[in-house]
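anyone seen this seq b4? input:
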Amino acid sequence: MKIGEIELRDRPLFLAPMEDVTDASFRFVCKEFGADMMYTEFVSSDGLIRDAKKSLAKLLTYGYEAPIGIQIYGNIPEAMVDAAKMAEKAAELVGGYGADLIDINFGCPVSKIARRGAGSGMMKEPDKMVQITKMVVDAVKLPVTVKTRLGWDENSRIIVDLAERLQDTGIKALTIHGRTRAQMYKGEADWTLIGKVKENPRMHIPIIGNGDIDSPEKARECFERYGVDGIMIGRATYGHPWIFREIRHYLDTGEKLPPMSVPERVALAKRHLAKSVEVKGEKVGVLEMRRHLSAYFKGLPDFKETRLRLVTLNDPGELYDTLDYVESRWGTACV
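predicted toks r here
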């Protein structure tokens, strides 16, 4: 599979951008487990052009993450163009590696974004969505891709026609989440329209499917039934970044890997914590790791008190000691 000149393996697996989840340290562990392509957390175009510190910080990427995309969102055409140009020059602005492509987020359903016309709010204004996409494509040299949904609601599932229009702007790939904005993340993702986009003979760019991929079996089913070129995995990676390794092994061999042991999870949690502190400093690195540390051990019996420690401790040394305790106490437990 190719996105512009970016070469990816057959049936690649993508890490979906998720606010407050897919930061550099989480991307580090997902890459370790075989994510073929990843994206930054989505970056506000308004924040970038105002030089907001938090938005600029999201542009920082590292060479080991390549290929990596910077994802931007917004609803003002000129601001989106300026933000795309800044993302293209990320290495000059903030250091680090930079970006291999620019991705436009037309899929986020969160109210504070969608209700002001950004993210999946653009599904109400497909003409404007196409206009913004074309302006961004024309403004940068990097490949541009789009992530979107089926439509605004059940009465406006416009993706089949919209996909052609977006392709005509010059984008190099399209990711489709199998829900409308009105659905948020409720109910089951509907992949049938994703399949119809892929089977449209007028479509020639890669189509990446997204929504409810939470097991190796589901991933293989979606590849085989709907013919997508790639699969993007989001919420199922949280507390479970090794899902990329599980899916790849199953796709390649037809066999399932055994569950990851508690000692393996402890070792992963330590690597993730160390990377978070390295990237963000001790205070922020620890604070933003708490949600991940507890998620790694979901399902362990009698874990409430230990989980509370993992989500409240501020000292990295105490966290490492607590992780050692997890291994000694539950090291032979089945999760």
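The chain has 16 helices and eleven strands. The chain has two domains: 6-253, 262-330. kinda curious what u guys think
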